[in-house]
Design a protein that fits this description.
6-stranded antiparallel beta sheet, 148 residues
Length: 148
């Protein structure tokens, strides 16, 4: 969720001895390096392999490099994941390219600048009111110069 909110195109989890490193690639720049528990990379690699939509033969599942594609939902937003898992002596190194699946839509609300949680809640309200189906609008009003 944090990676998507920051506009990251890639998430990297790399083993570093007793700990692992977590970094985001945002607009081509690697940033936000932080330490996470060593088993995060292993757990993530296992979960990605469970979610994977690939046609790898069974013998490829134990290869040194595993490549796959998966889809999941993050706070109600569908996300496509292309991942690479490199098995190293320290544990798996995971690289995930992520993309919100509706990023190219013209009718989405992502340009409003809301967090993904707020955006999901707002879209749920719109769906409940039926405004989206009826082609209606929602008007947000406030005081002049109130930053609406």
């Amino acid at each position: 969720l944090e990676a998507l909110e920051e506009g990251a195109s890639e998430v990297l989890v790399e083993p570093r001895g007793a700990r692992a490193s977590l970094r985001f690639r945002v607009r081509g720049e690697l940033r936000k390096e932080r330490e996470v528990a060593h088993d995060v990379a292993s757990t993530l690699a296992d979960r990605l392999c469970e979610l994977a939509h690939d046609s790898s033969p069974d013998d490829a599942k134990d290869a040194k490099v595993r490549v796959g594609h998966a889809r999941c939902e993050v706070s109600g937003l569908p996300v496509a994941l292309d991942f690479r898992i490199l098995r190293t002596a320290l544990g798996p190194s995971v690289a995930i390219e992520l993309e919100a699946e509706d990023a190219g839509r013209q009718d989405d609300l992502s340009h409003l600048g809301l967090s993904l949680d707020a955006l999901a809640a707002f879209e749920a309200v719109i769906a409940r009111t039926g405004a989206a189906r009826a082609g209606g609008i929602i008007v947000v009003a406030g005081p002049p110069h109130g930053g609406k």
